[in-house]
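Protocol step 6 of 9: fold each sequence in the batch and record its structure tokens directly after the sequence line. For illustration, a two-sequence batch is reproduced in full.

Sequence one:
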Amino acid sequence: MPILGANVLNKGTTDPYLTPWTMVEKTTADGQTVDIGIIGVVTPGVRIWDRLLVEDTLEFQAPVEAVQRYIPEVEAAGADVVIVLAHTGLDRVDYEWTAGDLEEDVATSIANHTSGVDIIVGGHSHQLNNVEVYLENADGEEVLFTQPGYHARFLSQVDIPLQLDSEGNPEIVWSDTEKPTAVALNAVDYEVDDEILGVIQPWYDETLAWVAQVVAQATETMPAITSVYEDTAIVDFISHVQTQEVERALAGTEYTDLPVVSVAAPFSRTAVFNEGDVTVADMAALYIYDNTLMAVELTGKQLRDYLEYGARYYAQVEEDSEINWDEVTNAVYPDVPRGIPDYAYDILSGVNYHINISKDLGSRIENLTLPDGTPVEDDTRIVMVLNNYRQSGGSGYPHVVDAPVIYNEQKAIRDLMIDWAITNEVIDPADFYVKNWTVSSSTVIAEEPEEPEEPETPAPLKGNVFYLANSWSTTTHDVAFAYGKRGDQVFAGDWDGDGKDTLAIRRGNTFYLSNSLAGGAAAVQFNYGKATDEVLVGNWDGNGGDTLGLRRGNTYYLKNSVTGGNADEQFNYGRQMDEALTGDWNGDGTDTITVRRGSTFHVVNSPRGGNADTSYNYGRIGDRAYSGDFDGDGTDTIALVRKNVFHINNAHKGGPADTVIAYGRATDSIIIGDWDGDGIDTPGVNRIQ
């Protein structure tokens, strides 16, 4: 398996550092030998994010020019088929390639500006809809481009029709009826290969044991889901570790008394430290890259420039407007047509600042001060702590590439986090969490209006607040109360069989059930399953009381009582990537599992697995799906939610919704339940305030 890199050159020469191409010999079913020439090119982005490793030894040629250079050599060696294996995605729509251009995504340009390439196998851009794309080469002929699924979601199977030319040599058939094609081979459709598993088993087991190690205890649940628009404890934890390490290293130097500002990005919105055990896997889920820690010296003006650049992550909105964060984050620009990714948005600790996204780019940062309130002046000296990717120019932040490097001990940030956790044993936000930045559409951060104070008026609800409605004809709530903590997972069910749904919350693998809509202490508490299990609520045995089901992969574990212990039933249904929904689809009093693939729902009426009884399409792939008895006929159906608008279908069919109503806010978490026991499920939302 040669490592190919036609555009990786020894510095100052035209000599390739890696093997530019290789020839692979294949034999068809009828015994014909076919020579396949494969040219490999890498993304020139390596020169940026690994700058410190490569700048003294390597140079990176434009991938298009490297392919142009080696096609004649490959053809002269007798290649019947020419494939370019490219760490690159399709060009952005408005991109025009020019010689010497070191753009990262240039698969279209490789095809357009060369002759002789038959197939391009690409990657890098993390797109899942480019399995089979036909491009045009410099002679106006077709070139097949295929991009396998990132993180091994699927492989591309390329089928190449061949015929013999007049001299008996194989050549590709390109016609209106026959040409090379590509299809996805989805990983979830294949069983584990026992022979391969046997080879890797020792390393597999060792890895599982390593990531399962408990390194600390978290005093409360710390989710990352809102980190892209509000200061969160879990991202502050990264900066806390980074800051302590650099302060240790710089102690006693000329930088000891300089303010230290740490940079961290919200790499994963799904990362969470649940209350209780924190494992190596939790650390890896939060910090997903193998970056090392560095520090540079900046001025206050350079720091402001850095923040202004990062603030373009948000699309501009009207002043004082309400913000839908799903629409505002990951802003799109001509140079980033797919939107700025979360990993390119930097959050700073060690200074206070506000981002006003109603302002134009370059003038969004307001109230930039040091922690004690002192304004950051243009000439203020700052120690900035960041990762090697960012310092090397990754994501294009200004000043840091040329800034003086004052710390670079080549320590992996994830390892520093793990070591800190093992040493300190407890992760408590009270020790490090400081709300030092905000973002809104206003210069003055909008606050919720306060109700006029009256002697008997209760204080406004704060914390983890629920707003429940008892009908589908209102946009206001009937019941409001606080229960649980920020970051808890919330479920609705009739736990005591009284005909009324109430709430349950999960922290880690501990469940707290409430039998009333009044908050306060839980009525029942128990442990069940693992913190990573998906939870489903249903009346599995038809006895009138809801209980819990867990899913791991496509295996379901159902419990018929609200206690811990072993599951009462276990079965497989659907595929691991399916979305699962619970409901009494046929009105027999027993809940079963339905799965959704794309926009297709597969409804099963038998209690345990088997083939679907009904299948139909409804809504769009991006809709959020919820189940419930929305019309009180004793049969559960599906509702879809777009932003804060519910689209309710009262039968298992596609087509238009029977009821459309707005409730709550687009940023609320949604729960469905029969809160008043009238037999009709209605909306509820969960809001942190």
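Sequence two, same batch, same settings:
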Amino acid sequence: MTTDIEIARKASKQPIQEIGEKLGIASDHLLPFGHDKAKVSGEFIKSLSDRPNGKLILVTAINPTPAGEGKTTTTVGLGDGLNKIGKKAAICLREPSLGPCFGMKGGAAGGGYAQVVPMEDINLHFTGDFHAITSAHNLLSAMIDNHIYWGNAQEIDIRRIAWKRILDMNDRALRQIVCNLGGVANGFPRETGFDITVASEIMAILCLADDLDDLERRLGDIIVGYRRDRTPVFCRDIKADGAMTVLLQQAMQPNLVQTLENNPAFIHGGPFANIAHGCNSVIATKTALKLADYVVTEAGFGADLGAEKFFDIKCRKAGLNPEAVVIVATIRALKMNGGVSKDDLGNENVEALKRGCANLGRHIENVKQFGVPAVVAINHFVTDTDAEVDAIKEYVASQGAEAILCQHWAKGSEGTTELAERVVEMLDSGSAQFAPLYPDDMSLFEKIETIAKRIYRAGEVMADKKIRDQLRSWEEQGFGNLPVCMAKTQYSFSTDPNLRGAPTGHSVPVREVRLSAGAGFIVVVTGEIMTMPGLPRVPSAEAIRLNDDGLIEGLF
């Protein structure tokens, strides 16, 4: 069987200027990075403001399992499928992180004949956006310690510095460190740590900012720590926001690449989906909507995390109006939700599939709560049987939706034309009446309860007095209108990653809350969520190498 990387390597790529021409982007407004990728100039993006928007389609999924769901692959396949049936469509994706790439997951640029290329570049350094974010973040870290060293005019309490350092790599050894050791010349020793780059508030800020002015304002709003009287110290108090904006100036420009079928794709930004909002940048999405009639984008992990945050954070703050949702499911993953072990997923098991469909049904119900019509995409595997496909179609029909078998991995756009035509029908019906799950003026704790009870189907939210008092304090300081960003395991509707299916009545314990004032949301940490992952026993990095021809092997 031909591997993903072999397929990508054989791609017949067009010069990036030709991809830009398909969207009406003149070559003067492209900043090329080689022959097959480029950034779109901010000047050109500003010139689009008076154009009408195309239609926005979200691709989400059931709760992920080790069996895989293929959300990115389906996003690419649907974009190609829309172009195949004569529509002008573009794709918007997140940039992959080096951490998962060298850790457990491997590459993240689609798969089979539904990929974005150049795959190796996209998965590795790409256009340097993540390096710019890492540099800007760590510049602020350095300036905080430097400010304290030279007299601490802001009277920062070094026990209450909230800003860590970051690195785009999985490295558990850096989660908790002591810095400034070595004597008087090196500053005041204190505890701190590292997060992975995609967990940085700067990543979230870049993905939510409208332009450079908005970016600088948001950077200035970052709370870096607190004084002894508990008043916050902001990034602008350290005078770091201007220099950080300079470092991020080019990173703010969306990246343009292409699919295997030479259709345009914007890949820009990449915040974590369990501890941040898990969507590509607002500026890339808005640019695509001005240039294409149909825009297909995705949100990280299952719909309980990615779709909820896409609707309640990204769409709310950016004024976006999604009009259709595609929920990706695989028969393999549904059987795993139904209790089948990973080793037995290749065997037909209709009864286990039916049990696992409860997870899919919950996601269908949840999406409908936002007033957006949904269709299910069955991401086909060769081990799927006709009986299993019929069972899932029958179940989805009982939920008032439709399931369509998609074979884009093996056939490219030919495998998604039926899905593309159904999505267009949904969009033409005008049935979408999008609305976020909760209003801005609801109290912060009520927002948490609303998500926990209506999306996760929890029976209660457990939070001690200290957490509730902190939420009330933020409301008094003027942050009560912010949305909440739930940091939760992606593997379950509950906070227990081993509780699959569609549990109800469980408890959601809130471990801590964090104010991301620059990004513009409150992070609510439930369960054990790592902001600096570790490598697995056998990391993907062990298999990644250059072969005798100088080509990369093992990335997929």
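Proceed to step 7 once all outputs are recorded. Observation for sequence two: The first strand starts at residue 30 and ends at 32.
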